[in-house]
Amino acid sequence: MKTLNNFLETTEYNWIESQYIKAGKYVSAIKHIIENKPKFIVEYGGGKSTLLLTELVNYLDYGGKVVGYENDEHWYNYAIENGWNKHNNIKLVDTEESTENNAVGKGISRGIRYTHPMEDIEGVDFVIIDGPHLILFPSDPNVTFNLMDIVNHLGYELPYFIDGRSGTRNFYSDDLSYKTDIGDKKYEFNS
C-alpha cells in the first residue's frame, strides 16, 4: 500500500516532511489527496507546492493530475529555475481585479481572479488557493474569486483548501457559506 510515509522515505522528496508536514503547511490538502484521490487538482499560486502535489499524485498512481496557475512572472521563472515546473504544469497567466457581491446583504468584496479559460479546468474536483499575493495590488483586494467562478461554472460546490488568506477564507466560509472547506485541520499521519 502506498502511504505518505513510504513516499517520504523512498523518494527524493523527503524535504516535504520538514517544509510542509512538520511545519503544518498544506497538511489538510495532502491528507485529502491521500484519502480521496481527486482526479484533477487546480492550484492558484503555483510553485514548490505544485511540485509537491504533483509528485505525491504521481506516486499514488491513481491517474490524477495537477495544474498550478501563477500570475507573477518573477515567481514563475523562479519555479522553473528551481525545477519546480519539471512536469510543465505550472502555467503563467494574468490576473484581473474586480468587485463581486458577497452573500445577500453583506456588501461588496474587492478581489482578484486568475484569468484562464474555464474549459482548461473542466473536471476539476479539488481547488487549492495559495495566491496571489494580494498586498501587491493597488486596489487593496481581499479575496481570490476563482473558486466562486468554478462553482458557478460547474453548478455545485467542490472540496477546497485555502492556505492562510483570511479574507479569502472569510469570503467563502462566512459570506458565501461554502461547506466543503477541508481547511487548516491538523492531522497526524500514521500510515
Would you kindly provide a written description of the structure presented here, covering whatever features stand out?
The protein has 191 residues and is α/β, with parallel strands linked by helices. It has a single domain (4-175), classed as Rossmann fold (3-Layer(aba) Sandwich), CATH 3.40.50. 34% of the residues lie in helices and 19% in strands. The chain has helices at 4-10, 15-21, 27-36, 48-60, 73-81, 146-154, 166-175; strands at residues 40-44, 65-70, 90-92, 95-101, 108-114, 126-129, 143-144, 160-162. It has a 5-stranded parallel sheet with strand order 3-2-1-6-8. It has a 3-stranded mixed sheet with strand order 4-5-7. The radius of gyration is 16 Å and the shape is globular. The protein starts with a helix and ends in a 16-residue tail after the last helix. Mean pLDDT is 86; it is low at 185-191.
